[in-house]
Amino acid sequence: QVELVESGGGLVQAGGSLRLSCAASGRAFSNYGIYWFRQAPGKEREFVAAISRSGEGTHYADSVKGRFTISRDNAKNTLYLQMNSLKPEDTGVYYCAARSGMVVVTTDMNYWGKGTLVTVSS
């Protein structure tokens, strides 16, 4: 069992920055690829970014490429999402998730966090 707890959400103006964190506890964090998803009001949950078990491989949705950076610290069992140049369309609940094996863009995850709300005002 892996427990994931997100933090760092909040209200920010367009053009601003936020850094989300996801703290993991339980089974070996380094065994899992870790993902960020988001869900805007009235919309389906969508993939944002992912990072491989070692941290050497990263993947991003086209909508966030060049603005968001995903990273992980396996020694601290923590995942990060640095979000810069935020836009109102980035508003939503951001979820951390874990999946064993290679990184694949899918919503079929082994574990999910409960989410943290990000609101970007125009």
Write the layout of secondary structure elements.
Layout: E1 2-7, E2 10-13, E3 18-26, E4 32-39, E5 46-51, E6 58-60, E7 68-73, E8 78-83, E9 92-100, E10 111-112, E11 116-121
Parallel strand pairs: 2-11
Antiparallel strand pairs: 1-3, 3-8, 4-5, 4-9, 5-6, 7-8, 9-10, 9-11
Give your account of this protein's structure.
- The structure is a single chain.
- The chain has 122 residues and is mostly beta strands.
- It is 0% helix and 53% strand.
- It has no helices and eleven strands.
- Strands 2, 4, 5, 6, 9, 10 and 11 form a seven-stranded mixed β-sheet that branches.
- A hairpin with a 4-residue loop joins strand 7 and strand 8 (78-83).
- The protein is globular and about 40 Å long.
- The mean pLDDT is 95.
In helices, the fraction of residues equals under 10%
Proportion of beta-strand residues: over 45%
Low-pLDDT windows of residues = none
How far apart are the first and last residues' alpha carbons, in Å?
Answer: 40 Å
Total strand count, please? 11
Order of helices and strands: EEEEEEEEEEE
Largest sheet: 7 strands, mixed
If helices are DSSP runs of H or I spanning 4 or more residues, what is the number of helices? 0
Measured on Cα atoms, how large is the radius of gyration?
13 Å
Shape: globular
Mean pLDDT: 95
Give me the oligomer status. single chain
Name the structural class: mainly beta
